[in-house]
Amino acid sequence: MKKLLDSPERAVADSLAGFAAAHAGEVEVHGIGEDAGPVFVTRAGGAVSGKVGLVSGGGSGHEPLHAGFVGDGMLDAAVPGAVFTSPTADQIVPALQAADGGAGVLAIVKNYTGDILNFETAVELAEMEDVEVATVVVNDDVAVEDSLYTAGRRGVAGTVAVEKIAGAAAARGDDLAAVKAVAEKVVAGVRSMGVALTAGTVPHVGKPGFDIGDDEIEIGIGIHGEPGRRRVPKASATEVTRQLVEPVMSDLNLTQGDRVLLFVNGMGGTPLLELYVVYGRARALLEERGVTVARSLVGSYVTSLEMQGASVTVLRLDPELEELWDAPVRTPALRW
Amino acid sequence: MKKLLDSPERAVADSLAGFAAAHAGEVEVHGIGEDAGPVFVTRAGGAVSGKVGLVSGGGSGHEPLHAGFVGDGMLDAAVPGAVFTSPTADQIVPALQAADGGAGVLAIVKNYTGDILNFETAVELAEMEDVEVATVVVNDDVAVEDSLYTAGRRGVAGTVAVEKIAGAAAARGDDLAAVKAVAEKVVAGVRSMGVALTAGTVPHVGKPGFDIGDDEIEIGIGIHGEPGRRRVPKASATEVTRQLVEPVMSDLNLTQGDRVLLFVNGMGGTPLLELYVVYGRARALLEERGVTVARSLVGSYVTSLEMQGASVTVLRLDPELEELWDAPVRTPALRW
Fold this sequence. Notes:
Two copies of one chain form a homodimer.
Chain A: H1 11-22, E1 27-30, E2 40-43, E3 53-60, E4 77-83, H2 89-99, E5 105-110, H3 113-128, E6 133-138, H4 158-171, H5 176-189, E7 190-196, E8 216-219, E9 230-233, H6 237-252, E10 259-266, H7 272-288, E11 292-299, E12 309-316, H8 319-326
Parallel strand pairs in A: 3-4, 3-5, 5-6, 10-11
Antiparallel strand pairs in A: 1-2, 2-4, 7-8, 7-12, 8-9, 10-12
Helix pairs in contact in A: 2-3, 4-5, 6-7
């Protein structure tokens, strides 16, 4: 294993310390350095009074998800666990409290068993402290039903769309029920599927998460390297992209005239050069079906350490979702 | 070789086609699809009347450099060559012409022999077409004097600072001589050094650009995988970062009270988790010397295909450079 780290044990804390220093004035990282409390990330200014707060979290190793999305128009707090490990309720509770500006908090949870359980516990505890919390569960991965860490579909890159759009709804002043309803509309309309060319290596494990031959790829991979649908021989970008986009289009029942957001996400070790090739191929497949790609995002936003690979996410749009997607956002990783 | 490409021959054109579609309305890519002319990238709206135009270019494989930096507050046109291959004068001439809003054009050239020669030829040809062109050469890499493709120091990630700051000077209305002077101030004050953990694979070559053992890293690597200063055993992020930052600080003669931009750049295959660790270590070394890190950038902006590794760039700031760095920028890859 070769990584730019000091030790597996310090990887997440050291990275968060660098993140905090690089984005001082925008975000604040609690629980690192001399602060011995639980680790969580908030906006530098704290909760916005009267605005619904947004909190998400999950295992580390998927950066910039989630801490990179803390800021105006997106999250108020993020809770990073150890690498590929759910954050604890101890971490989530103070994040929920810190995000509460008096209008309640929406917790955005990717569908992994550990995340679900720990967020549930944390929400109960926060509610005892008089924080009103609603929860939405993201489960956009069409690759598999149930998986190594999941009952039901996994939550993957579609989470970015949920966080961005719900964040815009909160920023425009929607109340908690309305922000939750918008988030649920995104969850209902977003689907993803990914492919791995290589495996990432969890620092404290020290070897790749799975074995994969020089001539094969894994279609339907999860963001922790969980098994996908099938192992196939390596193939052209056109063919691989078809195997990602067709299940997504089918699951969404996309038809002529639909408008979508197309998001091609890198898994951490794949360069932009390749992501734009996949984007072009995915877009062509959607357009062949008469679907209009009205919004686009291309980049490595939900990663799996240094895994080489990509995922394709499609979100069915309507005028409200387009407006909320377009609304200003100012976070370390996403800004317009 | 496993890559998300259809073929080595189509890699750059396919990627540019995807880039053009994803950022339609912001950029325009000429010479792909049915347009059989030379390949170059411009703002969607064309040159801005009365503003100095900025053009850069170089081999592909370093995305988002340079095409990702076309837009308000940065470049007016970019010229992508084949992978790791200088663009031809045929491509550069129409880019210089397209960027000319009547106030002349600044060409920003990374110091590689092929780039220098082809830009020189193109500038002569463009001047025959009555485009006034000034040129600045970026040579920020302190690792080696002369190299595989270079006489003198190589131009690497410092190019982003040159393009951003000169772009802001042009946007505020500076004339060609003034924009050139600002760009030269950045060139004089910016230094970089990189490290490779693994090698990238040029698509049409099909195997890694160099051999490197599982337990060694290359200090002072170039962005084409050119040899660096030395091959050493893998080491902690703290130790590796020290080997990058110390030569940069020495070369810049940084002393107590200096203010700098610290830019930690990923080589394409290294995740953000690790880049922030390097950032934290680099910042600590600068602060130990009494240097203030006044501005920061962390991300994969000048890549070497899927190479794992990072570079550290330091730019000596003054009030003018800070103001120009902070000025708004709206490009596919950099926006604030």
